[in-house]
Amino acid sequence: MTSELVATRRRRVLDAMSERGVDALVLGRQDNVGYSTGMAACGRLEPDPSEPGVS
Amino acid sequence: MAETQRTHLLSSWDAGIPEHVPFDDLYPITWNPEIMASSMAAIGGLSTARRIGVDACSPGFIRAAARFAPGSQIVPCDDLMASVRAVKLVEEIELVRSACRVVWSGVEAVLDRPDAPTPIANALVAMAALGATIPSSEPVVRSEGDTMVVDLGAMVDLYEGGVGGRFVDGRREHAPALVDACRDGATHEDLAQSSTGPWLVRGLGMGYETPMIDAQRGQDLTLMTGMVLSVTDGDHRDVVAVTSGEPDVLSTPPYLAGRPAGSGA
């Protein structure tokens, strides 16, 4: 994964914030943090939403 | 932060922190909401933010936000992140393709030693040797007479790969029509009519993503170019990138003319 990819993903998030008038984005899901910042999360996965009990 | 274009991360040390986030933009882990609120109030632009988007939010955060950003409105942004992530960049598609190749090494490890006492462990070892960090789904390996049913998934370089199918003499049965149905503009009805068994079409990238479409869900969703999907119909699973033309099957086996003789298939 290149730094250019991380920068492009971050730019896409900032653009989406601008389109929606969002001034700050506070992210708690590890996959969203990883996508937006490139911060490695040791391969952690969010729960499979198709499994029973996960909405 | 939109105003400063800066990223602030909750971390007490800089191991694993991307280079574009300087140490000064880290704030520490704490159980004390007072300290947390003061740390966040110090983030440039946050105290005057009008709209703060969140993807996960506790009642405690809402109370804290009322203090460090008193004029702000908290708005859900799960859909913002989902929509950004749903359409993949070219490099992301290639990372998923690479992850699928790693998963194939696990499939081959199973097929090479179908009578091994620990086929799943063999698959995990093979995938880990090529960079898989964690399985992305419950590994499936079972035999039904002459048929081996295998479904494996793994995270590689933070992107997911997956492969599943029924293997006879080491060769996978043909892909179902559902795989070919994953085209730009395809609707729930298109996918349902193409399926032959229990089916699931879901976004795939850095884990489970949108869309999520099966017999009961996603009736109003339409596939679009750039989506990357895990496509399951019965025991078969492929990973597909939706294009403006034919689907790009990212989980195509890494050998073109079938498994070489002597390698198990």
**Beta-strand percent range of chain A:** 5-15%
Mean pLDDT of chain B: 91
Into which percent range does the helicity of residues of chain B fall?
25-40%
The secondary structure category of chain A is: mainly alpha
Residue stretches of chain B low in confidence (pLDDT < 50, at least 5 long) are 261-265
Shape of chain B: globular
Number of helices of chain A: 2
In terms of quaternary structure, the protein is: heterodimer
Describe what you observe in this structure.
By secondary structure, chain A is mostly helical. In chain A, 47% of the residues lie in helices and 5% in strands. The longest helix of chain A is centred in the first third of the chain and has 18 residues, at 3-20. Chain A is flat, with a radius of gyration of 13 Å. The model of chain A has no long low-confidence stretch (mean pLDDT 80). Chain B is built from 7 helices and 14 strands. Chain B is globular, with a radius of gyration of 22 Å. Chain B is an alpha+beta fold. In chain B, 28% of the residues lie in helices and 27% in strands. In chain B, strands 5, 6, 7, 8 and 9 form a 5-stranded antiparallel β-sheet that branches. Chain B has a 5-stranded antiparallel β-sheet with strand order 11-10-12-13-14. Chain B has a two-stranded parallel ribbon with strand order 1-2. At the A-B interface, helix 1, strand 1 and helix 2 of A face strand 3, helix 3, helix 4 and strand 11 of B. Strand 1 of chain A pairs parallel with strand 3 (51-54) of chain B, so a sheet runs across the interface.
Per-chain topology:
The complex is a heterodimer of chains A (55) and B (265).
Chain A: H1 3-20, E1 24-26, H2 30-37
Chain B: E1 9-10, E2 26-27, H1 33-41, E3 51-54, H2 59-68, E4 73-76, H3 78-86, H4 90-112, H5 119-129, E5 132-135, E6 140-144, E7 147-156, E8 159-168, E9 171-172, H6 177-180, H7 188-194, E10 199-205, E11 207-214, E12 228-233, E13 236-241, E14 248-249
Parallel strand pairs in B: 1-2, 3-4
Antiparallel strand pairs in B: 5-7, 6-7, 7-8, 8-9, 10-11, 10-12, 12-13, 13-14
Helix pairs in contact in B: 1-2, 4-5
